[in-house]
Amino acid sequence: MIAKAGKILTVFLFLLLFFSLLALAVPVAGWAAPTGAVSPALEAAVHFIPLHGNVDPGMASFLSRALNDAREEGTELVIVEIDTFGGLVDSGIKIRDLLVNFELPLIAFINHRAWSAGALIALGADEIYMIEGSSIGAAETRPLEEKFISALRSEFAATAERRGRDPDIARAMVDADIEIEGIIERGKLLSLSAGEAEELGFIEGRVSGLSQLLDKLGYSQADLFQAERTILERLAGIITNPYVSILLLSIGIIGLVGEAMVPGFGVSGTAGVLGLGLFFTGYLVEGYAGLGMLVLFLAGLVLIAIELFIIPGFGITGIGGITAIVASLFFIFPDSQTAFRIIAAVLAISVIGSVILIKIFGTSKFWNKISLKQSETVEEGYVSSRSDRDLAGLEGRAITPLRPAGTAEIEGDRIDVVSEGGFVDRNAAIRVIRVEGSRIIVREIDNDRD
């Protein structure tokens, strides 16, 4: 039991060490200078920041780092290239706030599309230019409810007003009930092509590409510095893909279950630790999770370990551990729908995987002991569970030290017991004081004052 407990403790120490180092490394990795600069960073006059793909906390974190780099390097102009179908509204609002509060001249360059949250990001810039064939708008909320529509409509209108743009056009991108004569009829969300947006005066102009934009802005001869995601940020983007998240979480849970039930520490436990480590690394770097969610998850694992290995019998400790783990995973995902889908898939895969693992490798003697499972030979006399109360009051002796769990001999039967008062030495005389389900609680007779 001590050896097994030592292995479990090793797993937790490894997890704590891994994430402690990660907590120190994340800020460093997040502020690393991006690569791919056309000229030395300190001489850069134009800072180019591409925002491509889904609008999420990772995009907000990347933009925040890039804007700080531009500020520190003495950049004269920042160009934010936007190409997105949209994404999370809260991340879009955070990015919008970063742009409207940025003190240097900032240009939004729409390359192909700025839909939904991407349109709000574009509105946060000082000026907007669109490449030929691009579009902006179509900011439908999810869910499509009035309180969400009202909030996002106000956000679009306020941002447009702040930048001197028509707020009604911005509202119509969010609310299908808004009708603007000659522009959009009721019942449809507004989307504008580059030509339409320019004709309405909603943007500053159209360009054929980045070179023409730089020429139009008077920076055709300027040094250009392009921000790029760090390797850690790119890895985090892969990890936070829902399918990859399901895979890593399933590997982590199956690995830890296998370590607890299958003999020996090896591939199973290592795979479990690495799977969970990679999962939380990705979500911490991308900004989906804070250290609080990590601590809650680890606390859940500790509570379950206590329930299984120190205080046998399913009770409040085990329920608390499961609740902590589920809560930490639920709140780490961007929305409840995604959380339900991923958690359900992980639970199904983990149960199936754990059953297969046990069928192939069997269970360890330690697991058989803590689960009060009957031994393979009748001669050894192990008893799985005694629900009757006839044992209460009977006397026997401790075959193994009770710390507090161990084995005792009572009327010729070897029975797994738990001491009431802590440590009981081997061969000490004991008495059964009560039976609680599968738990047989004993007290050393020398200490029995009843």
**Tally of alpha and pi helices:** 15
The radius of gyration computed from the alpha-carbon positions, rounded to a whole number of angstroms, is 31 Å
Taking pLDDT < 50 over at least 5 consecutive residues as the criterion, the unreliable ranges are 1-13, 19-44, 372-388
Distance between the termini: 31 Å
Output the CATH topology of the largest domain. Answer: 2-enoyl-CoA Hydratase, Chain A, domain 1
Please give the number of β-strands. Answer: 13
CATH architecture name of the largest domain: Alpha-Beta Complex
**Averaged pLDDT, please?**
80
Oligomerization category of the chains in this entry: single chain
Order of helices and strands: HEHEHEHEEHHEHEHEHHHHHHHEEEEE
Work out the strand percent.
15-25%
CATH superfamily of the largest domain: 2-enoyl-CoA Hydratase, Chain A, domain 1
User: Major β-sheet, in short?
Assistant: 8 strands, mixed
- What class would the helix/strand composition place it in? alpha/beta
- What characteristic shape results from the CA principal axes? elongated
User: Class of the largest domain, according to the CATH hierarchy?
Assistant: Alpha Beta
What's the number of structural domains?
Answer: 3
